[in-house]
Amino acid sequence: MAKRDKSTTEIAEEEQPKPAETSGRFTRRSFLTQLGTASLAVTTVPLLHSAPVQEPEPTTQAIPGAEVPGAVPMVLNINGKEHHVALEPRVTLLDALRENLQLAGTKKGCDHGQCGACTVHINGRRVNSCLTFAIMHAGDKITTIEGLGQNGDLHPVQAAFLEHDGFQCGYCTSGQIMSAAALLREPCGQDDAAVRECMSGNICRCGAYDNIVAAVQSARRSP
Amino acid sequence: MEAFQFSQVNTVNSALEAVRSQTETKFVAGGTTLIDLMKLNVETPKRIVDINSLPLSQIESTADGGLKIGAMVRNSDLAHDPTVQQRYPVLSEALLSGASPQLRNMATTGGNLLQRTRCYYFRDTAYPCNKREPGSGCPAIDGFHRIHAILGTSDHCIATHPSDMAVAMMALEAVVHIQGANGERGVPLNDFYLLPGSTPNRENVLVSGDLITYVILPPVANGARSHYLKLRDRASYEFALASAAVVVSLSGNRIQRARIALGGVGTKPWRSIEAEHALEGRETNEHTFQAAAEAALKGAKPRHDNAFKVELAKRCLTRALSNVTQSA
Predict the structure, then answer these.
(1) pLDDT average, residue stretch B25-33
(2) What is the domain extent for residue A195?
(3) For B5-50, CATH number?
(4) Core-most of A157, A182, A209, B210, by most CB within 10 Å?
(5) Where does the pLDDT of residue A31 fall: very low under 50, low under 70, confident under 90, or very high at 90 and above?
(6) Residue B238: what pLDDT?
C-alpha cells in the first residue's frame, strides 16, 4: 500500500474487511452491519425469551456457516488464500464473497448478469459472479478486486483508473477494473471503439465511459 | 431462490445416471440463463447437476472437413477459435454480437441452444404465461410486445427465441448430438426446435434425461462466404430486434447456393427456405436480395407494437446479403 496517495487509501480502506481490534472506529460498512445486528437483536428478543434455550451442537471444527441448515462445507481459493466455509448450494459466488467472506469490494448491481458490477476472475477469466453458485468453484482460482494488486502495488489498471479519473460514484469501478484487467489478456482491437465493445458488459450509471476508455487504453500501452 | 440438492459429475454416463428417472432436475453449465431464472422463481428445480467437469470442451475438425463442437465449449472460446473464424465467420460474428465478454466466458454451446426467451411476461411470475403454466394464457398477445416474434407465432405464444449463436448454426445446418436413456441420436438443428403451437412449454425435442453432448457443423463449400448482421436498440450488449445469418456460394456474380436464417423475429431461430429459393440461381443484385427478403417475411404476423420488425428484418437480410456478396 506504500505507493498509494491519501485518496486511494481512503477508497481502499472502505472496501477491506476490518480486523476486530479496529471495530471501535466506524466505517460506512461496519456501521450498517452493526445497525443491522442491533435491529435483529431487538426484534428477536421476545422470541428468545419464550423459546427453550438450546445449546448449539458441538462441532469438531468451527467452519463459518456450518450452522445454516443445508450448508455444505467447501474450500474456496480466493486471492491465493484458502477459505473454509459452509454454504447452501443456492448461495451465489457474489453473495459468498460479500456476505460470508467479507470481501465486499465486489459489488452487487443488478444481480442478473446485466451490469457487470460483480465481475471477478475465475482461473484468470472474467465472469459475472452473480450468475454462478459458489459451490461450483471449489478448486478454482478466484481473484477479486482485493487481490488484483500484488505486493502492495496497484495493478496497472487500478493506477490507470486513478490517473484518468475513470469513475464518479465508484460503484461500478471494481467491476470495470476487473473487466479491464482481464481484457489485457484477451483479443481486442486497438482502437477506442474496440475497447468500448470489449467493456460493454460493464455499465456505468454516472456515464464515466470516456475516462474509463482512456484508462483502459493507457493500461494497455503501459509496459 | 428455492433450495435444491446439488451434485457434480465428471463423466457423461454419471451425468445421465444422475438424472435418470428424476423429475425436476436440471443440468447447470454456464448458469447464465438457469440461475438468472431461478432468482426470478421462473425455474424452480429440486435438484441441480453441475456438468462443468464433463470432458466436452473440445473443438475438433471432422474427417470430412466439418467441425465437432463439444457442448461445454464456452461461447468466447468458440468465437475466437481460428478454424471457426476462418471457415465459419458467421458463427464467430454471431457469438461476438451476443451478451458480454463475461457472459460469453461462462455460457456454453449446449446451454446457448437452450436459452429461454426474454419475453417480459415469461420472466415475471406475477403474470400468467402458457410457456410457464400451460393453459394459463398469454398476456403478451394483447399486451406490450415490441420485442416479440412475427414468425412462427401461435394464439398461445409469441415469444422470441433470443440466441444469436443458434441463428448462425441454423444457416450452417448444424446437427445437435444428444445422449439419453436410449443412447445417442443426432438431430438437425432445424428439427431440434419446436414451434409453440398449443404447447409453447415444449421448446425442443429434448426429453427428461437427455444431455446435449456436441454439435456438428457440416463442411462449408470451397469459396463459400458467410456473415451475421444484428440490429438492436443499442450498439452492444442487447438482444436482436432483427438479425440475419447468411451463407452463400457464388459462381461469378450468380448465387449457386444460399442458406438463410433470421433471429429476433421468430419463435425459434428462423431458417428461411423461401429466401434461399429466391436467391439460388439468381444474380447478386439489389432486386434479388429484396425478392429474398420479401419471401422470408411473407408469412409474418405483425402486431401493434412489433409491426416495425417486418421492414427491419427485410432490410437486415438485404444488407447482410449485400455485405457478404461485396466482400471478395
Answers:
(1) 98
(2) 156-221
(3) 3.30.43
(4) A157
(5) low
(6) 96
From chain A, pick out residues whose CB is under 8 angstroms from the CB of B76: 125
**Banded pLDDT at B21 (limits 50, 70, 90):** confident
Same domain, A118 and A182: no
- Cross-chain CB nearest to A198 (options B1, B3, B101): B101
Between CA B168 and CA B112, with CA B159 as vertex, the angle to 5 degrees is: 40
pLDDT band for B42, please (50, 70, 90 cuts). Answer: very high
3-state helix, strand and coil shares in percent for chain A, rounded to the nearest 5: 40, 15, 45
Q: Each residue of A114-125: pLDDT tens digit?
A: 999 999 999 999
Strands B242-251 and B225-231: antiparallel
Residue type, A217: Q
A132 → closest Cβ in B4, B80, B106: B106
| Residue boundaries of the structural domains of chain B | 5-50, 56-328
Q: Which fold has domain B56-328?
A: 3.30.465
User: Phi and psi (nearest 5°) for A112?
Assistant: -135, 25
Question: Is residue B197 exposed (0-12), middle (13-18) or buried (19+ Cβ within 10 Å)?
Answer: middle
Listed residue (B171, B326, B319, B172) closest to B250, CA to CA = B326
